[in-house]
Amino acid sequence: MKVYYECAPCFLRQAKEALDLATEDENLKMEVMEELVGIVYNEFRKDAVSNEVGTKIHRTIKERTKNEDPYLLEKKKGNEIALKFLPKIKKIIKEKDGLEAYVKAAIVGNIIDFGALGVNFDTEKGIIENMEKDIALNHVPELEEDLKSAKTVLYLADNNGEIVFDKLLIEKLKEYDVEVTVALKEKPILNDACVEDALQIGLDDAANLISTGTDSIGVIYGDVSEEFKEIFDESDLVISKGLGNYEGITEMKLGDKPVFCLLNAKCDPIARDIGVNLGDNVVLKL
């Protein structure tokens, strides 16, 4: 996805929050922010890809502050929130049971995002409100139909905490007799889930786990490993979670395989790019 005009102030808002999490050194914050403003000045243009600019910003923060995981405490908080709501989510799913209920739970998990929504967002309130909303753009019937002819599914994970709800959907997907592989980040960036985060919640019991081979926000084809590219190319169906993956995968050559984006449209640029309203839950077949 190409940047929209609102992306520039959002990059700087995220940069400020990440710096505050990464270091308490005020002089260093000033030095790094000068660099980050320079990145936005040099990289922000009409045809720039949003997650590529964001990746450069957050890699710079990690490198300059020597803090490899600024969002570590937020990631732990995300897991705590998800586990708190897990019994309630399971109860709702059990009452409805169909694929759409599991998909909706996974999308609601996408609310646990301290990057897009900020570190002060009331995540618990967001989860409750979104569980009561329908899926505004709903390609679940197409997903269910494509699952019937697929043998392998590649699931692009997004945030820590969110993967707790992803696990419920992945277990449901296996009822369609598919082998599921979940791709996670090689190293921390924002509050994205890494392989070790997935192991902590037992996601390896439900799927094969691989890393993208990098720490990019979402997927950037030029950054990912050859192993990931091979699995991506050979998978029969791809499920892409979240904003960063949407931003990246819409810039990739997808071939003939069905690709489904599951997300909450948490910002105006994403909503406009897809053609939905801000805050809508989305299941989009590309």
Explain how this protein is built:
The protein folds into two domains: 7-65, Orthogonal Bundle (Helicase, Ruva Protein, domain 3); 72-285, Uncharacterised protein PF01937, DUF89, domain 3 (Rossmann fold, 3-Layer(aba) Sandwich). It contains twelve helices and seven strands. It has helices spanning 7-22, 26-43, 50-65, 72-96, 99-109, 123-131, 140-149, 162-173, 195-200, 226-234, 242-249, 268-274; strands at 135-138, 152-156, 179-184, 208-211, 237-241, 259-264, 281-285. It has a seven-stranded mixed sheet with strand order 1-7-6-5-2-3-4, sandwiched between helices. The radius of gyration is 18 Å and the shape is globular. The two termini are 13 Å apart.
List the helices and strands and how they pair.
Layout: H1 7-22, H2 26-43, H3 50-65, H4 72-96, H5 99-109, H6 123-131, E1 135-138, H7 140-149, E2 152-156, H8 162-173, E3 179-184, H9 195-200, E4 208-211, H10 226-234, E5 237-241, H11 242-249, E6 259-264, H12 268-274, E7 281-285
Parallel strand pairs: 1-7, 2-3, 2-5, 3-4, 5-6
Antiparallel strand pairs: 6-7
Helix pairs in contact: 1-2, 1-3, 2-3, 4-5, 4-8, 5-6, 5-8
* Biggest sheet record: 7 strands, mixed
- As residue ranges, the low-confidence spans are 115-119
The SSE order reads: HHHHHHEHEHEHEHEHEHE
Q: CATH topology of the largest domain, anyone?
A: Rossmann fold
Radius of gyration: 18 Å
Mean pLDDT: 92
N-end to C-end Cα span: 13 Å
